[in-house]
Amino acid sequence: SCVGGNVAMNAGGKKAVLWGTALDNLASWRMVTPQAEWLEVTRVGHNLGKIHDVDSAVFDLQYFAADGKMKLRSERLEIAGRTFRKEGLGKDVTDKFLSGLPGIQKEGCDGLITSCRWVVHKMPAHTRTVCLEFFGNAKDAVPSIVEIKDFMFAEQKRSGVLLAGLEHLDDRYLKAVGYATKSKKHGGLPKMVLFGDIAGHDADAVARVTSEVVRIANSRSGEGFIAISPEARKKFWLDRKRTAAISRHTNAFKINEDVVIPLPRMAEYTDGIERINIELSLQNKLAFADALEAFFARGNLPLGKTDDANDIPSAELLEDRVAQAIALVQDVRALWAGWLQDVDALFPQLQDHSLRASWKTQIRAPLQQIFSGAEFAPILAECNAIHQRVLKGRVWVALHMHAGDGNVHTNLPVNSDNYEMLQTAHAAVVRIMALARSLDGVISGEHGIGITKLEFLSDAELQPFTDYKQRVDPEGRFNKGKLLRADTPASHGLHADLTNAYTPSFGLMGHESLIMQQSDIGA
Predict the structure, then answer these.
(1) Going by C-beta distance under 8 Å and a sequence separation of 6 or more, which residues neighbour residue 461?
(2) pLDDT confidence of residue 309
(3) 126-242, CATH topology level
């Protein structure tokens, strides 16, 4: 069921920064247990706010027979509020056990959720949307997220004006969605953009607070734009809704590894991702240089036809030009390889593009001089084709985040039928997970664990859920083996990670990508 998925994943959207995730807003839910009993879970004394703000959260569990009427037993769970998620990480869903609270955050492994009752919030009467464009270094712009959130949370206590959503897109996402820069002062795309809703019951207070948020952006070399009417606000949010367009790079699929990072360390995370992207780009450039050198070294290069026999290059002339081309490619490759080897020391220059590996300026332009003339046009055309083929297999990482709570969607577009590309992407994911951990973040945001992240959880993190699963569903009636190591009794010997993963139809994945581009599924 749809609501079952919301509960089982502990879902949360852009307004989670204000009202929390599913867990924070559940009044009660009903589910079928592995023993074919009905279970009703009711929150007692709901604080109508985020669950981690209370000293303890109390839940009544009532079990009924299959007819739903005869009461079998009941129990009460009292859970410390601070244990539901790691402090400061609003969408941490790492703890699948949750002190034995059934259904919620279990990814469908302990029963089937059939219905639930929610705490429903009412938006204030007045809302303004801000679009904040930041140019220059992302590391310098990202701290504005913390500054805006801190200001807005303090303002909520002072005037009641709320931050009802704060979303982020990096420059790769902006390019993918075809973002049109609003700034008239800067050319090209911003390094990042923030979209936010600011709401309150006092229109003047909302206007004042919105202007202050823009001022905060200005202090970080950003520009702010404000939408007031519903139509203008909708236009601002359209770019955020087109995030599935990131798949266009490969026309295939995207690996979405969402993590949750403490906001004060978000700048370090974006720096780490840029470091990974620089290395992936240089590795792709080296692969291109190797392919280009192999093309020139093989001989029998394609030549254009000419009506004048005198225009046909001699073997000696062609050999000399090929030798020049090979020497050029080798020299540029050595330069790029040196940058990759010294990436630690050269990271600032590579990040701000004062050092830039460019096939257009460093290889293509000199090749056009070496192979000038119509008779050499087929050689240049094949060089361009080689570049396109190699570039298609380049892996890179794009970020968009629910900036208010640190949930970062870390996406890697891939061609699912390119094994080498998939392996490169997986190696990048390993680094991304390690980076998130090193910054005191968690590797499981609103998308949960599933099969792709299981290998990154420690045995200690999984053990409480493993024991819980063995106790409530020893026969594995719900999602047998999921979220479990294959060597545990509760898994029944099944691999719940990527060990036995198989994609039966790459064509279907291509169609799925097209569907994602036309909908909000990929958001």
Answers:
(1) 94, 95
(2) 55
(3) Alpha-Beta Plaits (3.30.70)
